Amino acid sequence: MARIEREWQAEHEGAALASELHRVMVISHRQAKGFIDGRCVTVNDQLAEKHGQRLKVGDKVKVAFDPEQTYEVLPPARKLQAGPYETLWEDTHLLFVFKPAGLLTVPAEKPGEPSLAEAITESYRRRGFKRFNLYIVHRLDRFTSGVLVFAKTPEALHGLKKHFELHRLQRVYFAILVGELPENSGTLAGHLIEHAKSLKMSVATVRKGPGGGKRMPAGAKEAVTHYRVIERLPGHTVVEVKLETGRRNQIRVQFADRGYPLLGDQVYGVESPLLDRQALHAELLGFKHPVTEEQVTVTAPMPADMEAALKALRNQARIVRASTGVKGEEGIFQPTESRDHKLKRVARAKRYDEQEGAPARPMRPRREDGDTRPHRPSGPNDRPARPRRDGEDERPRRTFGSTDRPTRPRREDGDARPHRPSGPNDRPARPRRDGEDERPRRTFGAADRPTRPRREDGDARPHRPSGPNDRPARPRRDGEDERPRRTFGAADRPARPRREDGDARPRRPSGPNDRPARPRREDGEARPRRTFGAADRPSGPRREGPADRPTRKPAPRTGKPKPRKP
Question: Is 59 tagged catalytic?
């Protein structure tokens, strides 16, 4: 089909080209942008490529398009070319990858833009995993590089969510700031809030409440960042950042609010010729494995673009030092390392050496001769050395344990062993028996102790004098030596004999609240007892006809009475 051409002159000063097409041709903005991307629009006989090109009054606009063809808007060109992802560490439950700068972590609303999650899923499907599930745990900014973790099982996802909610993990970032920080380390603490229109983050400030008090605005979340200076360069500062909380754009916003934005940050700072993205790299991520409970720590190497920016800044620093005549290490910043940080770094290096199969460090050999090993000079707070014995080169070491130690011999004579002098708070010694060298020791236990003989006569055993709160003793029977003990239980107790005569058994006098006794028969004999149960009880006679049944009175009528016939 023939192409349709339209041509006119612009009437409004400063109007955007896409808006001019929308107004004149009565089409949607998307169709107008599609015509521009499809190379169908010219302005003053020159091909138009930008949607927002400004027109002047009298500019000639010409559009030539095919009505049967659909012109789609082309996706914007990516600022950085994102390469394929790199797997850093993987097991059955977790996957650590290196995220390059310029690649989205998850798919965005706009179609056509690649993401790291989609690339990982597609890679597993190509390897034969038909039902592969990848769970998103956290994210990195689009132009931030570094280590990123994904969960592969629901168990790992549940455990990682708890780690991130309770901040039970180690996150270390590497950043280059614009400006020279005055201190060598510090902490940035505050609250961040997101703006609904611009979707930018900012540091929240305290506002006055309705009652006159101060409060944070709604939606503000706490953000804590720890930092340490690693290197100082001309006009820039290299810092190591540790996150205590993980808010969106936390590092970028807090340093920019203080006046030291990240190098190349085009949202919260300014553009830089050294780097076309923010100089932020996620260097380390570590936590306890949510399933195996083993410590897992993964690091990511520095990307090439940040290495190039650091190299340029260091060359600039050498030029400045050479121009000022500074030589040697004078003026070079040396970061102070705390003892805790050093121990962690050494332990981490040792753990990586063991994983890579490096040979273990040889043990320190012991000296076979008696010469003492050289040691550091003692200070005023050191404990004095143990003195040597006379006539010996070195005090012999103890070569036996508690089981091999010889037992202390007992004294056979009656001489008392020497002991320390007793004090006023010591317990007095146990006195010896008269006429004996030593009190005999007890050689039997509770099972070997002889039983106490019982007395055969009627004499009472001596006992302690009774007090006013004691229970009186049980009296003995007359004419007997001792009251016989009960030798039978409840099963051996003889049954109470029943009376065969008709005399009533004596009973206690009845009271006003007692139930009257059941009357006896007139002949004086006892009433026979019931010898059958509910199953043996004779049933009553059934009624044979309906005439014998009592008639029931009919219920009253509740409805309206029927009208009588005339």
Answer: no
Residue 225 to residue 253: CA distance in whole angstroms: 11
Q: Which neighbouring-strand residues pair with 298?
A: 285
Question: How much is the pTM?
Answer: 0.48
Q: What is the pLDDT of residues 455-470, one digit of tens each?
A: 666 555 666 676 777 7
Instruction: Report CA-CA distances (Å) from 14 to 11, 17, 19, 26, 188.
Output: 10, 9, 11, 19, 45
pLDDT tens by residue, 135-173: 999 999 999 999 999 999 999 999 999 999 888 899 999
* Other Cβ atoms closer than 10 A to 332: 11
Q: List the structure tokens of 311.
A: 């190299």
Which amino acid belongs to residue 156?
A
Look up residue 370 and give its two tokens.
């008696």
Residue 453 tokens read as 């003989």
Q: Determine contact, residues 237/228, Cβ cutoff 8 Å.
A: no
Q: What are phi and psi of 554, to 5 degrees?
A: -65, 150
In the structure encoding, which two tokens stand for residue 360, read together? 């273990």
User: What distance in Å separates the CA atoms of residue 109 and residue 120, rounded to the nearest whole number?
Assistant: 19
Token code pair at residue 236: 């820039």
Among 211, 191, 187, 215, smallest CA distance to 201 is for 191
Mode of pairing for the β-strands spanning 145-151 and 280-288: parallel
Strand-pair partners of 202: 193
Q: Where are the alpha helices (DSSP H) in 227-382?
A: 250-258, 304-324, 339-355
- Cα 404 off chain centre by: 48
| Mode of pairing for the β-strands spanning 170-178 and 236-243 | antiparallel
- Of the candidates 59, 141, 265, 305, the residue annotated as catalytic is 141
